[in-house]
Amino acid sequence: MKSFVNLAVCLLPLAFAAPTVEKRQAGSPTVALSYATVVGSSSNGVDSFKGIPYAQPPVGQLRLKPPKPIAANLGTVQATGTPRACPQFLTQANTTNIPLNVITALADSPFGQAATNAGEDCLTVNVQRPSTATASSKLPVLFWIYGGGFEFGSTQQNDASQLITTSVAQGKDIIYVAVNYRLGGFGFLPGKAILKDGSANLGLLDQRLGLQWVADNIAAFGGDPSKVTIWGESAGSISVFDQMALYNGKNTYKGKPLFRAAIMDSGTMVPSDPVDCPKSEVVFNTVVTNAGCGGATDKLACLRSLDYTTYLNAANSVPGIFGYNSVALSYLPRPDGTVLTKSPDVLVANGQYAKVPMIVGDQEDEGTLFSLSQSNISTTDQVVQYFQTIFFNDATTAQIQALVSTYPDDPSAGSPFRTGPLNNVYPQYKRIAAILGDLTFTLTRRVFLTKTSQVAPTVPSWSYLASYFYGTPVAGTFHASDLQKAYGQTPDFPSMSIQAYYLSFINTMDPNKGTVGQISWPQWRAGNQLLNFNELLNTLLPDSFRSTSLLKQETTLITKSSAKMSEAPTPAYTEKEIKMMGFAMQCLKSGPPDVSTLN
To answer: Cα separation of 319 and 100, whole Å?
Structure first.
């Protein structure tokens, strides 16, 4: 079992990578802001300013509170070191499924947090630019939101120097900004008390304040605040859409849009129940109990008064993403009626989101990393029980049986796809990986594109499927494998191709405009075609693969929510297929009803 977890960690070097070491040169770049003078470093034609504070430290009585803008002059900020990460939730504690308690205790200890450079005073941004940029350059801005299941990740993970160097070489210069935001129980603690306190979705509010910081300050670095593209992967990609949907789609600040385009890599809208739903209360009560605040009259005040390590351990006492519950997340954005007014799928259907040009795509084997911890499942009946208990507890057993039956009990049909009987590390591994990948990523992307094409048919969108790691043992083209390609960490055809399309999109809001030597990428609504990124040659692919397996069930699976999905379907899908999409989307909102099933 432990070997599976080790494999998951090994396959995500991008999430835990050490920061790039810069070769500093004399004459450090300096930028004067209204509240600070920021000193950076320069190397190989790229200026880097890392760890610039954009909010007051969310510590003490500001823990579990919306972020506050900086109100005092900070003097000189040396933005040349490694920025502190927000508190991390790297392993799952208090579980009998994976024996990681010792590792968790070490990771959550003061020594462990210091070693990973993590702590509460973490609300900073990184800015990287071509060294030739000046305050009058007005360059397009790429705003990065990292992934990590809303549990781990930081701006330390990726250095954009190579991407910026490529942008200059192609005559498509950009400025890059990455934002740190609160995670886990620090940024997404749910519950009735949180809702009443007005402190829900703090991580999203951190991101929004980071965007406002860009609007106020990026011009001083040479960026154009009217030309911002928001970009994210995994939870960061989900966050990109959430930024589009915040406040019912209002993305203006001081009367101007905060962004004009979006790139979503592996994640779009995630259906979710309200922040005060039963599952949310289970999470909140578990954290409160483990924090020793169960008997407090004011439980939030008690949580805010705790020392950092005590609260970190309590916040990390619920199931994590690499545990048995997988992507049935404890912490994620949830509707609060104000910031995120409704479930994201409802906001899309209502057209309550910022309608900007967008690129949206997936990896071919999205589910593999999230299916390594369920090795006790060996039969079809156990697969049905797993999905009904952990994911679809509002559905009947017959409904889940019908859904599971569309995925043959045959390793050759599972993920990593197209690998025959190979890579099946336990009897139901490839089957579970196929279901989790399809329902969590492929299905939501298709529904998202279907609905946005109906609601805003004139707003362009492009979609892709990445297959460049085809044949990688156990994992395939796994979740997050796109990061090294997009950031140029591998000098190969996929990296060159992705960067060419993305840089054109950031500059012109069209991935084809100015892109040389690549096939034309059609808009998704024009025939529902995907650009298939491969190792040596890109092709076009109909966005209908596995539609029979995913969506062939009869109308016994229709719910009120899915009926809405069936209105005016695009020609690529039948009414029955759209209804099945809606059923699965509705099921994904629900979670385990009590802590015994959580653990």
So the answer is: 12
Bridge partners of 14, per DSSP, are none
Which residue matches tokens 């020594």?
A: 111
CA–centroid distance for 446 within its chain: 17
**Structural domains of the chain ordered from first start:** 2-356 (3.40.50.1820)
Token duo for residue 346: 């409802």
In what helix (H) or strand (E) does residue 11 lie, and over which residues does it extend?
none
Cα→Cα distances 301→50, 56, 277, 296, Å = 33, 19, 21, 9
Rounded to whole angstroms, how far apart are CA atoms 124 and 117? Answer: 13
280 is catalytic: no
pLDDT digits (tens, 9 = 90+) for 464-482: 999 999 999 999 999 999 9
**Helix H or strand E encompassing 435:** helix 429-437
The Cα–Cα gap between 443 and 435 comes to: 10
Predicted TM-score (pTM) above 0.85:
yes
Residue 254: per-residue pLDDT: 98
- pLDDT per residue as tens digits for the range 127-173: 999 999 999 999 999 999 999 999 999 999 999 999 999 999 999 99
What does the alpha-carbon distance between residue 153 and residue 393 come to, in Å, rounded to a whole number? Answer: 30
Question: What's the gap between Cα 492 and its chain centre?
Answer: 25
Yes or no: say if 582 and 563 are a contact pair by the CB < 8 Å rule.
yes
| 385-399 pLDDT per residue, tens | 999 999 887 788 998
Instruction: Tokens for 179, please give them.
Output: 């934002």
Q: Considering only CA atoms, which of 10, 286, 327 is closest in space to residue 151?
A: 327
Gap between the Cα atoms of 453 and 461, Å rounded: 8
- Residue 583 class from Cβ within 10 Å (0-12 exposed, 13-18 middle, 19+ buried)? buried
CB 464 within 8 A of CB 532: yes
Q: What is the DSSP string of 547-579?
A: HHHHH---GGG--HHHHHHTSS--TTS-HHHHH
In degrees and rounded to multiples of 5, residue 457 shows phi and psi of -65, -20
Candidates 42, 234, 461, 481; catalytic one: 234
The pair phi, psi for residue 178, each rounded to 5°, is -120, 140
